[in-house]
Amino acid sequence: MDAHSEMLLNQFKDSLPKYKIMRDAVMKLLKETISKNGLFVSSCSSRIKTEKSLAGKLELKGLKYRSLNDITDLLGVRVITFYSNEVDKIAALAERIFDIDWTKSVDKRKMYGSDRFGYMSLHYICRIPKSLYKDPENPEINEIPFELQMRTVLQHAWASIYHDTGYKTDVEVPTEYLRGLARLAGLLEIADEEFKNIRTDLGEYRRRIRALVKNGSFKDIPLNGDSFANYMELEPFSKLNEKIASINNAEIEQVSIRPYLEILIGMQLKTLGDLEDFIKESSEYAYQLAQHQIGGTDLDIISSNIGIQNLCIAHLLKHGHGLKGLEWFYDQLYGKQPRNAQRAKRTYQQAKKLAIIKEDLNA
pLDDT tens digits, residue range 211-225? Predict the structure, then answer.
C-alpha cells in the first residue's frame, strides 16, 4: 500500500467514532421517516466498512481518492422493500430528508439486463443536512457522504445467492452455471413484478368493495375477509345487541367477531346480500333466545358477539340442522371438545321453548 493510501486508512481509523455517530443519526432519521409515512419494509440496516475491507480497496485503487470523503461507501445503509414500486417511495422519502449527490448516485435498475437482476438496486450518495441534524462537537459529520441502497427482497436474495455462487471467487464459474443464474434472475424479476401487480390489483379490489358496501350493493359482493371487514364498519349487529342488552340494562363489551366469518361461510352464506337476509330473517328469534338465556339473571355485561352468535343458532335451527348443527357450530367456535355436545343440548332445550326449531334434518 502506498503512503497516500496509508494516510487515508489512518484517517479512517481516527474517524471511526464520527462514523458511528453519523450512522446512528442516519438510521434514526430514516426509520422515523419511513414509520411516519406508513411504509413497512423488510429491513433497514447499516454497516461501517471494516479496516480490512478498506485496506483491500485502497490497495486496488487508492490513488483514485484524494480524500477520505471521496470514498462514498464507508458508511452503507440498505433498505429492503417488499415490492418493487416501494423502492421509489423510499427514494422519494430519502430525497426529502437527505442531500443527494446526483452526480454520484446510480439507478442500477436502468443499467443491467436480467442476468444482473440482483444488482438492479437504486444507490444514492447522501449527506445529512444541517437543518435536520447538528453535532457541535463533530460538525464535519454533515460533510461526510454515505451510500443508501434500496432494493426489493427478491433482488436482495438473488444478489446474496449470486455473490455466494459466482461473484468475487478465485475459480471461474462455468458458462452453463452462469446461464442458469441468468434464467433464475429472469424468473425472479417476473416474480417481483407480479407481486407488485397482485398487490396493486388487491388494493383496487378493496377500494371497489368499500365503494359497493358504502352504496349498499350487498348482493354483488362475495362474502370474504375483505368484504366482511368493510361490512362490519356499518355495525350491522349493533341494533340487535342493544335490544338484547336492554333485557337486563346491561353494558356491551366489544369483542372481535372475525371468527364468525368461517362459520357464516360454512352455513353457505355466499354474499353480503345473504348476510343481510340472514340478519333480517333471524333477528327476532335471536332476541327471543337471548331472553331465555339471560332474562331473570343479574348479568349486567354482555359481549358484542351475542347477537351474531344467536343469529347463527337461530339460522341453524330454522333450517333443520338440530343438535348436530349446534354441535358443529360450537366446534367451529371453540374447537372440538367434549363440552360442545353439552352446550348444544342446553341451547337446544332453550330453543325448544320457541317456535324456531324446524324438523331436524340430521335426526
Answer: 777 777 788 889 999
